[in-house]
Amino acid sequence: MTMLLTNGNLKHQSRTVNKKSLWLIIGFSVITQALWLCQPETSDAGQDLSWLNSITSTDALVVADPDGRLLNKKNEKIKLVPASTLKLLTALCSIHYLDPSYRFRTEFYMGTDSNLKIKGYGDPLLISEVWREIAHALAKKVRGFKDLLLDDTYFSQPVIIPGRNHSTNPYDAPVGALCANFNTVFFDRDKQGGIVPAEAQTPLIPYARKKIRSLGLKKGRYTFTHDQDEAARYAGELLLHFLKREGINSPGKIRPGVVKPEDKLIFTYRSRFTLEAAVKKMLEFSNNFMANQIFIALGAHLYGPPGTLEKGVRAIHGYAEKELDLKSIKVVEGSGISRKNRVSAIDMLAILKRFKPYRHLLKRKDNVLFKTGSLKGIRTRAGYMEKNGRGPYLFVIFLNRSGPDMDKLMRSVKGAISRQ
Fold first, then answer.
1. Is residue 146 located within the same domain as residue 111?
2. CA distances (Å), origin 60, targets 80, 197, 352, 380, 392
3. Which of 85, 216, 269, 403 sits in a 20 to 30 Å window from 374, CA-based?
């Protein structure tokens, strides 16, 4: 009987021990799983992930394979300042709504009062060579005119871009429906300190020289005005210069004006650059002026003129939500110059996935196609890495603080991808 009681106690104790062990095992498993979920996602548990330690709470990173499967991620849902990588979204949205083959136009009218009128529609690439071509075409259609009237009403005035300062730096150039040379002047100095052209195709007309002297500029490329009327005036002055070369002189003035229904359309310039070509230049040079020109013009195209900042924002947000299922991004302008823009790394990954057919428009270094972004204390990079003919792999790095070495981190990303 004693033995039976002893065996019974042993069985009871055994059941008790087994229950405790079971709960310990379950608890350990839950803790282990929780710790595992907190680690950066990777397809190779044995690889060294110490490089991810440089990604802190103010940064984010995502690496994905060609199928979109996440290989590494950290803080991927935190909304951060994307800087100029935002231009990828602006480019994608404009290509979607306008078509890659879209060409901006600029119209020329002869008024009943014999005044020549120009109506701009936001073409971001009305450079000197283009104005020379336009003058040559107009010379075949007009013998003379009185005043030159500038109609830039396709954009509202003023368009205030958040984050843009009133400096002479080219990245602070204002937007406008009618512009020339990115609303900048580019010049050099001779040995005597005189002002000379920095490029053969762009003459330094008196209007530009006057601006250079009034601003006390040394040499280089500068934004010369933050007034949309003055920007349009420069375009008009440049056109008159080239018309005189064609033998056409105007005795009148250059002044603002509006095209009226009774005015006769005599020439329409269709840009020599397709939208796709313009986007390539915008991304290659990270041109803020071009990005916001496209941004404002897109809003006017979708919702009617005049183009405004609000309509551009509406266009981008509408596209992001309907086409990319991105409902919580914050975009306040199209270039990334504003610190009020907010996008997460996982949001940017969605943008990259859709932009994949146009990745050839990006800057290339070795086997990496990418777009960088830079503001004070902020560095970002997003793009694609090709590997063994398979790909591309996708990556997003947002560093919203000073300190981490972007190039070193990029080498780690490339190493992680190469080990796949």
1. yes
2. 8, 45, 16, 10, 20
3. 216
Q: Provide mean pLDDT across the span 70-85.
A: 96
Q: Percentage of the chain with pLDDT > 90? A: 76
Is residue 87 located within the same domain as residue 149? Answer: no
Joined tokens for residue 344: 């997460």
| HSE value, Cβ hemisphere, 13 Å, CA-based, for 412 | 20
**Cβ-based neighbour number of residue 136 at 10 Å:** 13
H-state helical runs in 304-403: 309-324, 345-355
Shared-domain flag, residues 396 and 317: yes
1 vs 92: which has the higher pLDDT: 92
pLDDT digits (tens, 9 = 90+) for 352-386: 999 999 999 999 999 999 999 999 999 999 999 99
Would you tell me how many other CB atoms lie within 10 Å of the CB of residue 375?
Answer: 17
First to last CA, the chain: 67
Let me know if residue 246 belongs to a domain: yes
Residues 170 and 123 in one domain: yes
238-243 long-range contacts (CB < 8 A, ≥24 apart) are 238/128, 238/131, 238/180, 238/181, 238/203, 238/205, 239/118, 239/131, 239/134, 239/135, 239/148, 240/148, 241/203, 241/205, 242/131, 242/132, 242/134, 242/135, 242/136, 243/135, 243/138, 243/139
Three-state SS at 94: helix
Tokens 């009034």 belong to: 214
**Rounded-to-10 torsion of CA 395, 372, 92, 107:** -170
Amino acid of residue 264: K
Instruction: Decide which of 247, 272, 297 is a domain's last residue.
Output: 272
Domain coverage including residue 161: 105-272
d(CA 418, CA 399): 23
Tell me the pairing of strands 184-189 and 220-223: antiparallel
pLDDT tens per residue, range 299-325: 999 999 999 999 999 999 999 999 999
- For residue 249, the Cα-to-chain-centroid distance in whole angstroms is 40
Q: Please, which residues have CB within 8 angstroms of residue 190's CB and are 6 or more apart in sequence?
A: 196
92: Cβ contacts below 8 Å, ≥ 6 apart: 319, 351, 354, 355, 358
96 phi, psi to nearest 5 deg: -65, -45
Structural domain contains residue 242: yes
Query: Could you give the 3-state DSSP secondary structure of residue 56?
Result: coil
In 281-297, which positions are buried (b, 16+ CB within 10 angstroms) versus exposed (e)?
A: ebbeebbbbbbbbbbbb
Which of 381, 387, 389 is CA-nearest to residue 362?
381
Q: Are 163 and 219 in a shared domain?
A: yes
368 falls within a domain: yes
